[in-house]
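Progress note, sequence design subtask.
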């Protein structure tokens, strides 16, 4: 696996909006965890 993963934040935002539209805003795939998330990959 590549250690230099680059995540397109704008694309992730669009994906989150699409999932909220498709699944609903309270679906587990669209609700942020209580700690606010933001985990770093590989940490």
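Output:
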């Amino acid at each position: 696996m590549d250690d230099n993963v680059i995540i397109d934040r704008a694309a992730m935002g669009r994906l989150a909006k699409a999932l909220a539209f498709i699944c609903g805003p309270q679906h587990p795939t669209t609700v942020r965890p209580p700690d606010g998330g933001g985990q770093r990959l590989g940490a």
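The chain has one helix and no strands. Work on this subtask will continue into the next period as scheduled.
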